[in-house]
Write a structure and sequence with these properties.
The protein is α+β, with helices and mostly antiparallel strands. It contains three helices and two strands, in the order αβαβα. The protein has a two-stranded parallel sheet with strand order 1-2.
Amino acid sequence: KSYRPTYLEESLTEEVFVILVHGLGACRMDMEKIKIELKRYYEGKVRVFCSSSNEGRTEGDIEAMGMRLAA
């Protein structure tokens, strides 16, 4: 079976930014493995950032968490 590039691989002509956001009760470090694998797989075509804006504050108002993420 021959290898067929995915749509994302075919469309990556410029650098892409990816922002990873952890879920309920988690932290930025939970996203580090995903970050490492994305950077390895796409060989420098992606820049990956792990949000820490809501660490320790993952319960409560979703709007407030979104505002902290955007700030």
